[in-house]
Amino acid sequence: MRMAVVSEQSAPARRGKIAVWWLIASEVMIFGGALSCYILARTAGPGWSAEAAHLSAILATINTFVLLTSSMTMAMAFAAYQKADQRGVCRFLLCTILLGLAFLGIKAYEYISHIADGLAPWSGSFWSFYYLLTGLHALHVIAGIIVNIILLLAAGKGLHTGYRIEIAGLYWHFVDIVWIFLFPLLYLSY
Amino acid sequence: MTADRAHPNYVAIWVWLVILMLTGVLATLLPLEKSAVIGLIFAVAAVKAVLVALNYMHLKSENWLIYALAIVPVLLVVAMTLVLFPDIVYRH
Q1: Residue A59 has pLDDT above 80, yes or no
Q2: Which chain A residues touch B5 with a CB distance below 8 Å?
Q3: Average of per-residue pLDDT values in chain B
Q4: What does the pLDDT read at residue A3?
Q5: Which fold has domain A11-188?
Q6: What are phi and psi of A4, to 5 degrees?
Q7: If you measure CA to CA, which chain A residue comes closest to B42?
Q8: CB count in 10 Å sphere of residue A121
Q9: DSSP letter (8 states) at residue A5
Q10: 3-state helix/strand/coil string of B13-62
Q11: Domain residue limits, chain A
Q12: What does the pLDDT look like over A92-142, one tens digit per residue?
């Protein structure tokens, strides 16, 4: 049986969703271009196995778990909104924000460890790509957290967040999908 | 606002995503050729991405315009990579 329509279908929601999907389409081209360059350079070059072996697959796996979980809590915030459960919206948005911050904390720890080992963005092509791809992704996580904080503050004051939860969720899930591909590209393909 | 809409089971989707994540990680330990392992982990990543897009981003219940906005840029990126692949990889 076909699943019932779950996303918001009102006119403002449709306009907002189309706008965010346009944004996501442009983001796909930005990340896609960078990922494509990385794949081509790695395939054509020496493979960067030694460099990639410096990365911690364990930390990256934990970070992947954190981001996947944050996607679930974001989706549950939207489900709570549709049930008119304002406390649920606040609770799940807060979880999403905290998980996003945890992701950034682990990422910052990785950066500090690498730089302490002398592996900076200018230490070679692999490291340039690594910092570019993960840094660009981290900036998107920060942007998503800021949007979620704004929504949380509005929901906490009892203001109507409406379909914006779903729109913010679209962006957050896209950031999750980008990481789903960055994870094997950088951490598992050595 | 609407109520009583049938949502995907978000927790079940998350469980599948975690299982797939672990599958991808464990695949690197398999005694296979490197190209086979890489193919496997990227196939797993693609399934995870589709699960997120269909269920968390609600692509399942969207119309053709949203589908087009989601799929066309992905196809462009894949095409760009494939077109450049022979020139860059086989000439170096």
Answers
A1: yes
A2: 4-6, 82
A3: 88
A4: 46
A5: Four Helix Bundle (Hemerythrin (Met), subunit A) (1.20.120)
A6: -65, 155
A7: A184
A8: 15
A9: P
A10: HHHHHHHHHHHHHHHCCCCCCHHHHHHHHHHHHHHHHHHHHHHHCCHHHC
A11: 11-188
A12: 999 999 999 999 999 999 999 999 999 999 998 999 999 999 999 999 999
pLDDT digits (tens, 9 = 90+) for A21-33: 999 999 999 999 9
Minimal-distance CA residue of chain B relative to A162: B1
Stretch 74-93 of chain A: residues touching chain B, C-beta under 8 Å: 74-76, 79, 81-84
Contact A60, A186 (CB under 8 A): yes
Among A72, A95, A125, A183, which would you mutate to test the B interface (most chain B Cβ atoms within 10 Å of its Cβ)? A72
Contact A36 B84 (CB under 8 A): yes
Rounded (5°) CA angle A94-A150-A111: 65
Which residues in chain A have Cβ-Cβ distances shorter than 8 Å to B28? 57, 188
**pTM summary value:** 0.91
Among the residue ranges A53-62, A161-170, A172-181, B71-80, the one predicted with the least confidence is A161-170
Residue B39 has pLDDT above 80, yes or no: yes
Q: Dig out the tokens for A53 from the structure.
A: 């072996």
Q: Determine which of B2, B20, B57 to mutate to test the interface with A (most A C-beta atoms within 10 Å).
A: B57
Mean pLDDT, residues A9-34: 89
The ipTM assigned to this model is: 0.90
* Residue in the structure block whose two tokens are 């969703």: A17
Contact B49, A180 (CB under 8 A): yes
A64 and B21 Cβ atoms separated by less than 8 Å: yes
Residue B5: what pLDDT? 58
Q: Is the CB of B58 inside 8 Å of chain A's CB atoms?
A: yes
Using CA atoms, how far apart are residues A162 and A164, in angstroms rounded to an integer? Answer: 5
**Who among A8, A39, A181 is closest to B49 (CB)?**
A181
pLDDT value of position B2: 42
